[in-house]
Amino acid sequence: MTFGFAPSSATSTSASSVSAGSANHLARMLEPAEWASAGIPLLRSPREVVSGLHSRHHPTPATAVVAVLDHEERLTASASFARRPTVAADGWEFRNALLAQLRRVVPHDLRRRTPVRTAVLLYCRDGDERWTEEDGAWMWGLRDACTLHGLRCGAYITLTRGGWQVLGEGRGGRRPSSLSEPSLLADAVSVSDHRNTPTRSGGGAVEALRRTAAR
Fold it and tell me: What are phi and psi of 64, to 5 degrees?
């Protein structure tokens, strides 16, 4: 005669919760093909955008920089923050973090019929330029945060030791990288919330940087 034990209801419930949590986690990320087919607007000058944000924030690995551009691709607001190491790569968590930063530096555009401003995300991380599940979670978070704040979802850019890469577009460059020193213009940047007069996203005059830069 064989004896056995049926799993308790508590064990079954726990296993179901873990399974559901894993499924939700996987659902809250975007694959490169999904991102590429989502109609994300192309940056006219991604190198200028990346260089300008790097000069203002000088991100190190595990730092995200979210920026809002106007219809002429001028920088109107930006903020940087470190990803908490205890938080899993979950699009829902990233969405909440991005939304909190957007609410802090720029008013929402929810009353407009169509978005006129675009949010882009620069994420500095370890590893190479290839897509990771963490990137997919940031993509999902950026798209959802833009919807909730009335913005158009823009480019997702990674910054690694090898340089920068606009995922889903195949455009990138070797400088700046996560190892790059801040440019000389960065010395003139004030470390305050960036909520002032728009300037070109790619650097511009030192005086303009004093008025518009943020950390």
Answer: -110, 140
**Total number of domains constituting the chain:** 1
Span 28-55, pLDDT tens digits:
999 988 998 888 999 999 999 999 999 9
**Secondary element (H or E) of residue 183:** none
Q: Beta strands of the chain (E only): which ranges?
A: 63-69, 74-82, 118-124, 152-160, 163-166, 171-173, 199-200
Q: What are phi and psi of 44, to 5 degrees?
A: -70, -40
Strands 118-124 and 152-160: parallel
Residue 175 has pLDDT above 60, yes or no: yes
136 within a domain of the structure (yes/no): yes
CATH number at residue 56: 3.40.140.10
Q: What is the pTM of this model?
A: 0.77
